[in-house]
Amino acid sequence: MDAQPLPHLTAAGQVHMVDVGAKPDTVRTATAEGWVQARPDVIARVRDGAAAKGDVLAVARVAGIQGAKRTADIIPLAHPLALTGTTVAITLEADRIRVETTVTTRGPTGVEMEALTGTVAACLTLYDMLKAHDRGMVLGPIQLLSKTGGRTGAWRREIEDPHD
User: Fold this and answer.
1) Spelled out in words, what is the top-level CATH class assigned to the domain 26-143?
2) How far is it, in rounded angstroms, from Cα 115 to Cα 123?
3) Element (H, E) at 124
4) Taking Cα atoms as reference points, which of 60, 57, 35, 29 lies closest to residue 142?
5) CB of 56 within 8 A of CB of 38?
6) 26: number of Cβ within 10 Å
7) pTM
8) What CA–CA distances, in Å, run from 45 to 8, 98, 126?
């Protein structure tokens, strides 16, 4: 595979924000996932609605949506995007919580960073809301699962459970 020039570097090697103004608007989606590993008793508290800070799943979903919306504020070279949709799905397992964030827009650049940032924000919020019960929780892996739209079209990760 030939090395492609990095789009965020000028010919002189200086960092810059890529100009996407000439790119056509297309519908673009991206889905990312992340995990929070915790003790089974902590997961049971979440499932039973008995966590000390209240409805942690609702707060984490809102944090994920807000994180996706604010990506350009924390990722230096990300473009501010008008998102048309963001969903955050949270699934409880015996000793871990799975967060899946899907983001959609119609524009000249993709939403991979928004999906990843939303996932990270939701995972960090879960940690914050549950740390009184388990400071030893582990976050990760965080990974892009799929993207659609744009010049490169669709891409999908060959999904394997990262915890097997």
Assistant:
1) alpha beta
2) 12
3) helix 112-130
4) 35
5) no
6) 16
7) 0.88
8) 45, 16, 12
- Any idea where the domains of the chain sit in the sequence? 26-143
Has 128 been annotated as catalytic? yes
Q: Is the dihedral of CA 105, 100, 17, 72 positive or negative?
A: positive
Alpha-carbon gap, residue 106 to 113, rounded angstroms: 15
Contact 32, 116 (CB under 8 A): yes
Q: Which residue among 41, 48, 73, 128 is the active-site one? A: 128
pLDDT tens for the chain, 164 residues long, are 455 665 666 666 667 667 676 677 889 999 999 999 999 999 999 999 999 999 999 999 999 999 999 999 999 989 999 999 999 999 999 999 999 999 999 998 889 999 999 999 999 999 999 999 999 999 999 999 999 998 889 999 986 666 56
**Tokens 């608007």 found at:** 25
